[in-house]
Every structure is written in structure tokens, then in C-alpha cells.
């Protein structure tokens, strides 16, 4: 998320018309349509083969590849929507460009930034294919980043194909938990945004 937000700041504020910004923007738009299984294959080749084991870290790399372009592009749009006069007022009071971005633009763009983060988290929460290639599965949640780890999405995938009714019941329960997690994160972000707007 920080890398995506910093990338959005660069695209919107410091180099919006440069060749680098154009190339980064194009790559981010291409990555938004990237099939998630390709992110898993890339993370497998980049992390799993180097470390020699499936791991929670490799799963995080795969999911971050999917989240990064969403956060970056929505951050760019949110920052562009901040009125120009706010930047000019900050500069008129003696702020440097980086101070104006940090203290004025980013706080004003917070609702849009949070929306982008929530969209990225919602996409990553339901992904199974990248985790099959990177984190695989374990009966235990993260106990070491360099080891296999449990994941609700992979648990649902594994248990839903089993012939045992109790495992299928676990898969349905895990599906409900996953939906409730994403829903609660969205509700929490909406409540936070309303409170900050009221202040």
C-alpha cells in the first residue's frame, strides 16, 4: 500500500507528464487486468524457487503484485481531485512541494486513498490461485514467514472438493467468514470516512 500511494503521488504531482510516468501508468493499467494465476507463477519463480520453500512471504509478494496497480491508480485519481488552490495556498505559506503533498494534499485525498486500499484488499482477500503457487497451505496460521501458511481462500478450495460433508461444511463456514471480513473492513472504512468528514 505505501508503494502504491507513493507511486500515485509521483504520477499525480511530481512527474505527471514524463515518459517514466507514462510507462508506469501503462504498466499499472496492464497489471489491473493480469490474471491472478500469473501473479502466482511470477512470485513462485521470483521467491519460492530462490527460498526453496513455499512461504507466507511468497504469498504476500503475489498478492502485493495484484494490489499495487489498484492502489496506485486510485491514489493518482484521488490526488488529482484535490483542488489546485489548496496546493497554491500551501506554497504561498512557504511549504516545499513535498511538505504541501504530505501535509495538505494527502490528508485532503484520504477518502479516495482509503477507497483504493479497500478495493485492493477486497481483491486480494478472495484470491486462491496465487496462494496455491506460493503459500500453499498449512493447518496453522503464520508461525514463521518462511513456512507454509493457512489461508481461507485455499481452505475453501481444498475442502469444497472433498467427499466428506463436515469438510464441505467447513468450506461454507470459511466462505461466510471471508465475506464477513471483507464486509466489516468496508463498513469500518465508511465509518472512518464519515467521522473524518464530520470533523
In short:
The protein has helices at 2-14, 19-32, 36-51, 56-80, 84-92, 97-108, 110-125, 129-134, 152-160, 165-198. The chain is mostly helical and 199 residues long. It has a single domain (2-198), classed as MetI-like (MetI-like fold, Orthogonal Bundle).
Q: What order do the helices and strands come in, and which of them pair?
A:
Elements: H1 2-14, H2 19-32, H3 36-51, H4 56-80, H5 84-92, H6 97-108, H7 110-125, H8 129-134, H9 152-160, H10 165-198
Plain-language structure description:
The chain is mainly α. The protein has a single domain (2-198), classed as MetI-like (MetI-like fold, Orthogonal Bundle), CATH 1.10.3720. The chain is built from ten helices and no strands. It has helices at 2-14, 19-32, 36-51, 56-80, 84-92, 97-108, 110-125, 129-134, 152-160, 165-198. Helix 9 (152-160) runs antiparallel to helix 10 (165-198). It is globular. The mean pLDDT is 87.
Radius of gyration, whole Å = 20 Å
Mean pLDDT: 87
Name of the CATH architecture: Orthogonal Bundle
CATH topology: MetI-like fold
- Indicate the proportion of strand residues: under 5%
Q: What is the distance, rounded to the nearest whole angstrom, between the alpha carbons of the first and last residues?
A: 25 Å
CATH superfamily: MetI-like
Number of helices: 10
Q: How many independent structural domains?
A: 1
Largest sheet: none
Order of helices and strands: HHHHHHHHHH
Supply the CATH class.
Mainly Alpha
Alpha-beta content class: mainly alpha
**What is the count of β-strands?**
0
Amino acid at each position: 500500500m505505501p508503494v502504491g500511494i507513493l507511486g500515485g503521488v509521483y504520477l499525480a504531482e511530481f512527474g505527471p507528464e514524463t515518459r517514466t510516468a507514462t510507462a508506469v501508468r501503462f504498466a499499472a493499467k496492464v497489471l489491473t487486468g493480469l490474471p491472478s494465476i500469473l501473479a502466482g507463477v511470477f512470485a513462485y519463480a521470483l521467491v519460492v524457487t530462490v527460498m526453496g520453500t513455499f512461504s507466507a512471504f511468497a504469498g504476500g509478494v503475489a498478492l502485493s503484485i495484484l494490489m499495487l496497480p489498484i492502489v496506485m491508480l486510485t491514489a493518482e485519481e484521488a490526488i488529482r481531485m484535490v483542488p489546485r488552490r489548496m496546493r497554491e495556498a500551501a506554497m504561498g505559506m512557504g511549504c516545499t512541494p513535498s511538505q504541501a503533498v504530505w501535509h495538505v494534499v494527502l490528508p485532503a485525498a484520504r477518502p479516495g486513498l482509503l477507497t483504493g486500499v479497500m478495493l485492493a484488499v477486497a481483491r486480494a482477500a478472495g484470491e486462491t490461485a496465487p496462494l496455491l503457487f506460493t503459500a500453499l497451505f498449512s493447518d496453522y496460521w503464520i508461525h514463521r514467514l518462511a513456512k507454509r501458511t493457512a489461508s481461507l481462500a485455499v481452505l475453501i478450495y481444498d475442502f469444497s472438493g472433498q467427499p466428506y460433508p463436515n469438510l464441505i461444511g467447513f468450506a461454507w463456514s470459511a466462505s461466510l467468514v471471508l465475506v464477513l471480513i471483507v464486509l466489516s473492513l468496508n463498513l469500518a472504512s465508511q465509518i472512518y470516512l464519515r467521522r473524518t468528514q464530520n470533523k
